[in-house]
Amino acid sequence: MEEGAKLHLKEWLITQIESGIYEGLCWEDDNKTMFRIPWKHAAKKDYKQTEDAALFKAWAVYKGKYKEGRDKADPTMWKTRLRCALNKSTDFQEVPERNQLDITEPYKVYCIQLDNGSAKPADSPQIKDKMIIQTKRSSKIPGSVEKEILSQNDSFKAKKEEENPLTENLMMEHMYCELTGKKPQNQVPAPITFFSPAPTMSDFRMKVTLLYQGQRVMQVTTSSPDGCFILQGRVPLGNERIYGPCTAQQLSFPSPGSVSLPSCMAEAMNRLLCHLERGVLLWVAQEGVFIKRFCQGRVYWSGPTAQHSDRPNKLEREKTFKLLDIPTFVSELQSCLQGRGPTPSYEIELCFGEEYPDPGIPKTKKLIMAQVVPLFAEELLQRFNLGETEEKRLVLGSNTEGEKM
């Protein structure tokens, strides 16, 4: 296979399911929209690394993270990498109610997200063209998928060459996973190709504003292409040691004592902050703005892709949510410039510990909120004189000095 012609996780995993070489990896339904993946814990007495870690090892080999004879075998790390990739990918959604983790041969079930009602994943012509069913695996590397067995047709190569490898890294291997590839730090934003079906994103910065009862306590423009955590304290060092470094910027909630609040409000805020350790992870990728909640405390949000505008939208824990869809934003911007629609929305609001949106309570009364502005969108609108400056925009009330937010 030519260098750089790797499959996405979705295509790679469907190939493995269809191959039938991994025991327990199979379709859950006849329509091939859900699949089972073996999930035996390494601490079990009947755990056999050769069989039970074969799929996870194959993914590590395929991604270049493990080479037989060079690297020390680490089944726990292999499993972690594939789990992170599945959880971060927008192509998959875990189906917890179908999981069977307490049986002799435990497994998880994932649903494959179809693209705009397209053909079933395993029946896709592109997948069939790339699928070469393996008959026997080498005894030296059981269950691994070697690069040579996956042939690429011309159309697939062309599609891959157009895609941004940085985006794949961000989407596939993020939170507490070793991020593959070196990403440019503090890069100068390149022009965005709007009006194109696949805009080229290169500005991953966000302006994040934290507010306590409507008072601004922090405003930061992120600089890491890996996004940022908003959390109480810091990401535990033990996680980085186990799962590898994550270079996402860390924004810690300031002490409630940093603003003038009644003592009862400060106490309530301190109680809430105790439940926000690990916080949320936000990042911008080629397809949009994403978030994943890791904290115990509840988090609600509003934004361009929110299901409700008049009642709360809750972020489920350990699930990836798309807060803004870039292709939709670009389409709406084009319509706006042609006089066929309003200015597209791009601002996102997070509310920690309290339901939001909440028509009965003004946002300035909420204990802890965050406003997130993807700078590529703000700058695009300003380029066409469609945006508002911060001085003109009233977002969440005024801060302690009375300046408009």
From TrEMBL:
InterPro entries: Interferon_reg_fac_CS (IPR019817), Interferon_reg_fact_DNA-bd_dom (IPR001346), Interferon_reg_factor-3 (IPR019471), SMAD-like_dom_sf (IPR017855), SMAD_FHA_dom_sf (IPR008984), WH-like_DNA-bd_sf (IPR036388), WH_DNA-bd_sf (IPR036390). Residues 6-114 form the IRF tryptophan pentad repeat domain. GO terms for molecular function: DNA-binding transcription factor activity, RNA polymerase II-specific; RNA polymerase II cis-regulatory region sequence-specific DNA binding. Gene3D superfamilies: 2.60.200.10, Winged helix-like DNA-binding domain superfamily/Winged helix DNA-binding domain. GO terms for cellular component: nucleus. GO terms for biological process: immune system process; positive regulation of transcription by RNA polymerase II. It is found in: Nucleus. It comes from the Eukaryota. The keyword Iron does not apply. Keywords: Activator, DNA-binding, Nucleus, Transcription, Transcription regulation. Its main location: nucleus. This is Interferon regulatory factor 10. It comes from Seriola dumerili (Greater amberjack).
